[in-house]
Amino acid sequence: MITRPTWTDEAPVVELIDLHKRFHRAGAWPWSPRQEVHAVAGVDLRIAPGEVVALVGQSGSGKTTVSRIVLGLEEPSAGEVRLEGQRWSGLAEAQRRAQRVHYQYVPQDAMGALDPQQSALEHIEETLKVLAGLPRAEAREKAAEMLSRLGLGSRLHALPREMSGGEQRRVTIARVLALSPRLVVADEPTSGLDPDRRESVLEALIANLPPRAACILVTHDMSEARGWCHRVLAMIAGRVIEEVDLSVSEPTHPYARVLFDPWSAPLPRGLLADQGCPYRPDCPLVTAEVAHLCATTVPSLQPLPRGPDGQRVACHALTASSSSPPPSSPPSSSPSPAPTP
Amino acid sequence: MKGRLLRWPYAAVALLAILALGWAAATAPVHLPAPEVDFAYAGPLELPPFGADHRGRPLLDYARQGAWVVALPAMVAGLLVMFMAVGGGLLACLGGGWARSAVQIASEVVGSLPRMVVILVVALLVPRDDRSLLPMAIAWALLAAPGAMDEAASVAERLGGTRFVEALRAHGFSASRIFGWHVVALNLRPVVVRQGAEVMMQVVFLEIALSYLSVVEDQPSFTHPDSMMSWADLLYQGYRSIVLDVPTTHVLALGLALISLVAVVSLSIGAAARAR
Amino acid sequence: MSEPLVVVEGLSIQAPTRLLIRDVGLIVRPRRITALVGPSGAGKSLTARASMGVLDVIPGLVAGSLRYPALGPQDWFQGVVGGGERAQRRLLEATRSLRGAYVSYSPQAASSALNPGRTIGWQLAIAIGRRVEAPASVGAEVRSLLAEVGLPARAAAALPAELSGGMAQRAALAIAIAPKPRLVIADEPETGLDPVLRRSVIELMIQVCQVHQAGLLLISHHQSTVDRIADDVVVLPAPPAGEVAA
User: Fold this and answer.
1) How far apart are CA A188 and CA A182, in angstroms?
2) What b-and-e string marks burial along A184-202, b requiring 16 or more CB atoms within 10 Å of the CB?
3) pTM of structure
4) Are residues C197 and A222, on separate chains, in Cβ contact within 8 Å?
5) Is the C-alpha dihedral spanning B108, B112, B118, B119 positive or negative?
6) Do A and C have ≥3 inter-chain CB pairs under 8 A?
7) A211 class by beta-carbon count within 10 Å (0-12 exposed, 13-18 middle, 19+ buried)
8) In the predicted structure, residue A334 carries a pLDDT above the cut 50
9) Is residue C170 within 8 angstroms of chain A, CB to CB?
10) What is the predicted ipTM?
């Protein structure tokens, strides 16, 4: 389990305030009407210094869009992003560029972020010379040291095409960590890797984060996020439906449980409702007393009535005062029982 | 850093050869010297460095005049193609799929044009008094450009295109660093320089071919004033040594050597700028 | 029909520099699921291919026996053990007719299973052509296979690039099951899929195998999957440290 200290009393590194993002997707034909996709539908988030937060969801859940908005790679349609108290969304790129040193991005496509004509060492060296202002000799030395720390000591002069997927990923991570950033957003850092390599890449990233740095980990595998995050946020249809600390308790929302262990609950068919709770068509918790609420009102994140601090879930059925508390034992490796409504 | 942009052995060879040809072009006489019967058919040993033609005029002057005829047009053509190829590569990084498709279509359409016919049309349009290789060289470069742009665009795409640019932008690099250094200097350079060097070589060969046609037909050349000799003249006179048993083998040898030198320059430039 | 579909015993395969797998055995019975697990580089794909008669390492097979009891008692590795490339090539030819009609292999990435230049329908038709008995109507069979894996009929006209990850995996399954094999080998079909898709692909695979009364050899990294669905588990040990590409 993660042992990184956090400073929750201090000012948050990242603040997302009622974030919305709408896309227009072109229709099948040039004359077809464009569809509006509500990719992010009201996300609020605060991340303290030192915290590692996972955004978990299937493709289309909005997790990648949120991570891109945090760093300004996309602009939100509504809402605000603040980094270290300063407004970030809506700024011109020229104003943001100088600050980007502190807020870094590990892209999903590692190979596509590397220059095929530069060796691993040259990548980090360039970063340190240009963005950290170090003189050439010192930059080279620190670059070699950074790469060695991530297990690439013997691959300093390798070109990207000569490296495996895991090695390329580590180079992008090294490049980011070399700047000692205060925020790292990693977009599916383990995608495309063998399961054995996934652990080591996550470890390379999290264990080498500067002490007070916050980290957002975007992934579709919650069990993988488990050992490395303080908090997990499960998303569906652009909304966060559960926020839980997996070292203390298990997810309670039916969809979050499926993401956590797909064999533990009935498999959703994937149809989402347009009105009310998006998960309603597949939800096993809809009882007569909450059915009307579920059909008309989108549930907001609420703490569970008798649940641990910090765990919040967006479910009418679970947050009604008559529901019993979820099991609060630490998650075990064997399949978990179905939730009691 | 220099080691990444240029490979020195090749660059040195290319530089030396270019300097030699450049000196030749710069010092080319406006007219050939008067014929000297004593030196007719002289070999390189009798009249260094290259001997003389059937009327005793030194072949060195042929070489220098021929260099003058091709030097500037070839360079202009090469630079024009390089410039447009860089543009094609940058478009692929910045623009969406439409830019890439447009370049591809242009490349296919232009590539299907009968190149020599277009060149000859341009040649016929050039007024008689201003005969020069330059208009044909520019036309050749414009015909070659879409293909070069397409190749550069696919290199840019393999780089990752907009994803590559976005990742570096998110990292904090400036646009000039991303496009100037990474895209153009490191990645487009090999392809663009090779294309430019190839076009330079093609323009020289074009000149020789056009001039040879004119010499054979005993017509004034399209590419240079009558007072100038082209390297094609060396080939023509030297060819007669094979067919008519005239002692002009040394002339042929010089002509072929100059052509080889141009090929060496072109290939060396391409190799000097080669990718890792 | 309770004869096992494939029995491998004592399989050892040698590469130029090291022994890749040592003394591995597996059995797959009809309508049962055998899971093959182990870390990267342990030789899972190698074992799976060997059980189809495909040996592509040199010097290769140094020990082992391969039987398809449902077809007959012979040991297919006889004469191939220690025989080098020639013998392995002969085995490849001898077992060629088995691949497709008896045992079908779905490679690790769906993209390897799918020909990027041909439509799904075309590829299904080719796979159907490998059946022991040709069907009355190939078109109807294509549509029925697509329906079985939960793809719409219009997927037959689609190219692989037009399909999402989950859909491509289903298409690869349809192609694997099209020749009506008795045994399906699925090499890490869960790769790259999120938990929900993973389970639905695995469940679909099991369902399809049940319907066609086939056995399934599943290579998987996910302990939760193996715990839930496997009838037998074969565990391959990790290769010696330092010899796996990073």
Assistant:
1) 19
2) bbbbbbbbbbbbebbebbb
3) 0.84
4) no
5) positive
6) yes
7) exposed
8) no
9) no
10) 0.85
